[in-house]
Amino acid sequence: MKNLASVSVIKDILAASGFKFSKSLGQNFLIDENVLSKIVECSAIDKNSGVIEIGPGFGTLTQRLCMAAGKVVAIEIDKTAIPILEDNLSDFDNLKIINEDVLKCDLHKIIAAEFDGMDVKIAANLPYYITTPIIMHILESALPVCSLTVMIQKEVAMRIAAKEGTKDYGALSVAVNFYSEPEVVAHVPPSAFIPQPKVSSTVIRLKLRDKPPVVVADEKGFFKVVRAAFGQRRKTLLNALSNSPAIPLDKQGISKVLADCAIDEKRRGETLTLQNFADISNRIF
């Protein structure tokens, strides 16, 4: 079996297939053996695991997932990569390749059809241009999934893992922590990819929560408050919330809500905990 993480093997595949890397699809294939192993290891994948891989490319990670998992479903948007994937991974009978956009396919249906009785996990080297939409789509879809382990741009990973009171903390931090417990696994240099991206990368694992860590009466209302609080980061909480058309209270009403929550109206969104946001939203919505 050929090692798909080998640069020489990939060059041979490129020469034989005429494949061209697509900048518009954010194609940077991971070729670092240690990082590939780390993704599989920290995902806790075994023969009882069903794995969804997003954007397999040539199958460098897919190959290792198939070795470790009971079954792998690889979802690839680029139709020109499909025959290469099928050829590269023809030795595996526990792999299904789907040529679709992960944001448009029915993941609930795929999981029900392919992973009956299995612990389902998601692993991916995500295209950087669409990282946040994919992560939030998965988290908001309430999929029966244990974890999501992904390679993403380092800057985005730091925002996801950020704690309140830090410069990286924002609406994305709150949203991801609402649905999951994030853990930074490893930082990865550009040299770990072909072609090399212009930014550093990070592997982050999101362990999905059975239920949110805070009780909210209206989830949509909760996120309206979060977005409003971070929409104008330099403004005080009172001004940021009162300036938002999504918040159905005037300035006086918001001032009362903040007082009832024992939150100083001069604070800013980046200082609030998930519980603070929940307390505010539960009094508004």
What does it look like?
With 285 residues, this protein is α/β, with parallel strands linked by helices. Helix content is 39%, strand content 18%. The strands form two sheets. It has a seven-stranded mixed sheet, sandwiched between helices. The model has no long low-confidence stretch (mean pLDDT 94).
Concise overview:
With 285 residues, this protein is α/β, with parallel strands linked by helices. The protein contains 12 helices and 9 strands. It has a 7-stranded mixed sheet, sandwiched between helices.
Q: List the uncertain runs.
A: none
Number of helices: 12
The main β sheet shows up as: 7 strands, mixed
Mean pLDDT: 94
Proportion of beta-strand residues:
15-25%
Series of secondary-structure elements, N-terminal to C-terminal: HEHEHEHEHEHEHHEEEHHHH
Q: How would you write the strand order of the largest sheet?
A: 4-3-2-5-6-9-7
Radius of gyration: 21 Å
Key structural traits:
9 strands, 285 residues, two-stranded antiparallel sheet, 39% helix, elongated, seven-stranded mixed sheet
